[in-house]
Specification:
Blueprint (H helix, E strand, L loop, with lengths): L2 E8 L5 E6 L3 H11 L6 H9 L4 E10 L2 H14 L20 H10 L7 H8 L12 E2 L9 E5 L5 E5 L2 H8 L3 H8 L9 E5 H12 L1
Helix pairs in contact: 6-7
Amino acid sequence: MKGIIYVAENTVNGKRYVGQTRRTFELRKKQHKRDIERLDLKLYRAIRKHGWDNFNWAIIVEGIENIDSLNRLEQYWIKELDTFKNGYNSTTGGEGYILSDEAKMKISKAHKGLHWSEETKRKMSDSQRGRKNPNWKKFGMDNPLSKCILQLDRSTKEVLAEFAGAREAERITGINHSNISQACQGNRKVVGGYYWKYKEEEREEREEIAV
């Protein structure tokens, strides 16, 4: 089973919890629900206080191929959303995974400037209606030699993110770059739960519609 990074947001106060799982998203939520009364963690104390229905759950990244990427991305999102000090995470994540200085530098460069906009927050609130992966941002667009790739929502075909290339997409999402390339070339329909296209192809389609 491929990995998932997900977030739970308290709609009362806006505080969040970031988690990872290699099970299905629905099974992981059911496990959380079972643990509410038996575990004394920040997340469960908050759910007991505010109620299960006042938490929205959404997938941030899915289709993560290996445990190192899963741990790395969980650590990143806990830090990015500040859920350890000002949220419901009891640890900094990663199941004890220790990042090397080189890995830290690569992650910092890859995610530089990434933030959750007001639009992203709205998408989080819409998560129960199937909106996923609010992590939409352009990455590495300054490289003129890159063949830009678009990540699209499987249901709405909305563009979620734009990457400089398949390897950049893998570094950010954890989804295998070869599979992403195959999807862009039309050899695979869906990879990691998303549609993928070359940006140039998307532009040509828009121009054809306009004509």
